[in-house]
């Protein structure tokens, strides 16, 4: 089982909503190659 950080499923220091949306699109593209099913995203303003 691969960890989310090993397959590009973690994004840090996203400055605004556009950056978040871009990161989500990138993750979906990267994870789709591995036939993973994306059920949702989790965000934290830390």
UniProtKB/TrEMBL annotation:
Gene3D superfamilies listed in its UniProt record: ATP-grasp fold, A domain
InterPro entries, per database record: ATP_grasp_subdomain_1 (IPR013815)
Molecular functions (GO terms): ATP binding; catalytic activity
Protein name in UniProt: Uncharacterized protein
Species this chain originates from: Sediminicurvatus halobius
């Amino acid at each position: 089982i691969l960890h989310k950080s090993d397959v590009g499923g973690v994004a840090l220091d996203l400055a605004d909503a556009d950056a978040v949306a871009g990161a989500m699109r990138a993750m979906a593209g990267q994870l789709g190659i591995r036939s993973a099913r994306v059920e949702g995203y989790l965000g934290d303003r830390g």
